[in-house]
Amino acid sequence: MDRRSFLQQGSLLGGSLLMFDELLAKTSWLNDKPINIGMIGCGDRGKGVLSVIKSLPQLFRIRSYCDVLDFRLDEANHLLKDDKIIKFKSHQSMLDDKDLDAVFIAVPLSAHFSIAKDAIEAGKHVYVEKTMTYSIDEAKQLVRLADQHPKQTVQVGYQYRYSPLYFKVKDMISSGFLGKVSQVDCRWDRNGTWRRAVPEPGLERQINWRMYKEFSGGLAAELLSHQIDFINWAFDTHPDEVYGTGGIDIYPDGRETFDNIQVMFRYKKEGMIGNFGATCGNARDGYLFKIKGTKGTVSLLTNTGLFYPEKEAKEALSTVDGVSGATKIVWNKDGGTPILDEPTKDGTWYALQEFYKAIKTNTMPSSNVKRGASAAICVAMANNAIYNNRPEYWKADYDI
What global pTM score does this model have? Predict the structure, then answer.
């Protein structure tokens, strides 16, 4: 196979996103007026999304922002530099605005469901950050609520898999390009306490909410859910069995969520095992995502990826097309070749475009409420297995 053919494989979905700027000029619904949006939650993630929204003025108009902490409102105001944008301390007050079309929800996980519910019932489109909900019951309730409001978009912020890279890998899997996949290895490691500075002691739990079980799903929800969601989506599956372990092994500083975890998912239908781990005590691997099949392995970062063929597959791929004269695949020194020619943009950039398109065309986004529910259920199962030290099993009423 030549490099041209290899790069074309799996590009059907990703290509449409790569050509978005061209589509913007040619497609009628993309030339419609911008959507008025509000940001609920102005912490690091909320401000990060706002900065990307600012780069897409043809799609979105920032109408308002909201946070319960005054200094977060000040930080958002400094970022936006526009006194015409309305600020709120109550999301209910924000939702009363009839000119507001959609909201982004970037608050502690425990509040995702209640705020999303309020927004949907107020007639707003919703983009809720991952993980979609804190509990399994909330996930099921949000699906039912979204079904009752079919004209409103509900999208979940698994931004990495909106990129053309992840669409391509999904197609490589479904087309059989990797052969029979039996193992998935995922890590998202860091070396640090994961703590944020607290201006006064009374704000500890509000600012460091990720450390406390009342508010947070810990490392599984905040990091590994990205990879968990991708496997569910790419294979159209879910785990049948979940095993996990972990502990507060590095920072015994009063936190409740574990700083060192390992989870194993068994996907029986696929004959596949997924290994998902995260630690706060070593950053060497960082984001590691490997999908291993009989014909080859995909090794992914958030914006780049390499394909490593098994021996027989590499021999077949090394054949040059003598008619077209296409460039032979060039393998790097460890035997891999890039999946795309260049790194993709920030995944949020693609995810926001999908949100706009879904609203304007009343179509379901790729990371929709049902996909979000499946991932949220998996995260809750993982945490139950970790904290209760017993296996978790997928139940029939989890099928949404």
Answer: 0.92
